[in-house]
Amino acid sequence: MTWSHSAYINEARGAVHTGDGTQVNLYLQALSASLREQARQRPRTVAKDDRERLYQRFVPPGRFQRARQVLHTHHTVLLSGRPGSGLRAAALMLLHELPEAEGSFHELPDTADDDSSSPFDNGEINGGDRLLLDLSGADETRYLEIQNQFSDFREQLIGKGAHLTVVLPHHLGYLLRSDLRPLTADIERPSARRVLTVHLRHDGIVPSAAELDTPELTAYLARAPLRDVADLADRIRRNRDSVGTEEGFPRWLGDALDMVTDQTARVAGDLSTRHTGTRRALLLALAMFHDTAPATVFSAGTALLEVLRHPPDERPRLEHSDFKAELKEIGAETQPSGRVRFSEIGYDRAVRDHFWTYLPDLRLQLCDWIGKHLEGMVLSQKERDQVIARFSEQGLRTGRPEDLLSLATRWTGQNVPQRLMPDAARVLVNGLGHDRYGRFFRQQIYDWSKNAELSQGLKRVLVLVCTDVMAQTHPDQAMVRLHHLARRERGPVGAVAQRSLLAMARTDNRLYRLLLSRLNTGMTGSHGEADTTLFLAMADATRVTKSGSVRAALVSGWTGILRQWPWERWQADADRWLTACEDDRYRDPALDVLVTACAGDSSRLGGLYRVARGWARARTDHTSVRTDITAGLLQKINSAQGFEPLGVSA
Question: What is the pLDDT of residue 39?
Fold first, then answer.
């Protein structure tokens, strides 16, 4: 790659706008389905189906029985151990083994949201709840704060028959309070070979002992975190499915290990013999745009040289080597499919690791290169996703999550093409899924959700990410962020956020109660109008019988509505509430909520009754039923005021 810089468009494979309206909806609808599928495959979710799948493949670690005993005795267990030992999986399985109860199975928040930095302030504990708190990424301040609040929370746990597992931060072990040590179980890493064989067996692969006793596999299993061992099993399965069963386990394993084998020493040696900047730029361009067309790699290498301000080669074009020869010089070849790859499996990853590790002064420029180049480059969405995944992996591996945030904000700016929104969403999703930096991204999304100055593009992406990804793994936190976006936006983005928020809360009785509680608090604050609108949309008479806490939250909300707003503001919603009373199952408890919300105030009671009379007189096929409901309401109103009328007429 010794020719001068140039750029050209080879072909168009992106979407073409051929009609009225905006195209962003098409991009985001397709991305939404993809993100939901990706979220279902992530190991961090606590959904029952995912827990069942993990349970089938779970290998109990050392001292797991001790953890069971602590949990059963104290309703709480704190799990400690080295990173990569499967602590989170153990925490999930300890809770999963408990008998099913009426309570919910959910993860407590691990970020500082709103006015509270405590995960224990997110509503009351219900009987039989099974709770997970992952503090593996906590900092010193937060870890100490949570320990200080722990005793009171444990008393509530025991009183409600609920259980809690906590994953402790290994790097802060010296800060654990002495009074909490009896609740601690030190988990020992299970046999990595056993983990691998169990995963393989569930995929119908049963290798012999000799096939597992290779030096390469033994060395890998000795150092790999358990999540990487599970990934290796999945790679072996995919190799079997792609190359066929006739190749046999040694081939499937060999190809899988080649993908994860550390080749950084070889890359360092190769780079030392390739002194020209253009040759090194081509190496990195191919490593980032691996398995794409030659023109794509050429364009990426040219763009990298421009970003790095590398001086161009002024020789005439025909004095340069052709691109095929340049690729051969760096150990690459063009496949029958027309795509370019390194000849050695795993070499592309080693090149990326080397550049990000040993040229740290170039990281900002590499971020700029990817940002600029993907803005103008025509690639399939799959190819774009692969490039973004490779960049994300390196940024997170080298402790630079802010580089991912930089791309997300860049690709959602005011004048940026809407087709880049899926790229921005992918960057954030990659960050959210990272074991170490997931909390960092959840906190950043929270901070963004409260910022009214964000671009519309970024707000759209945040709604999508919260709805389709965070809601699967951290629903409480997703709900908080959607609430802030819904209450601050009045345009299309706000409408989408509201629909997503309401749909999410309605699917789970616990989330429904939590959102009602937030709205009750918010109706008296600076976002009172927005939270009032949300409450009226949420107020569902059929939910009154779900639990006492839901009923109390509905009473509190209606009390605020009736106290602050004239009847015209809430008439339509009261009509909807009364219509639900046509079902006998909800009539008495729903009417009780409305009357209780009036708190004996004759003015409010009178206004409520006038609205009910108007509703009863509306043309309908249920006139007699409505008359009975209105009469029942009047009777409850009279009882609330301490007297019974001689006669009742609707």
Answer: 52
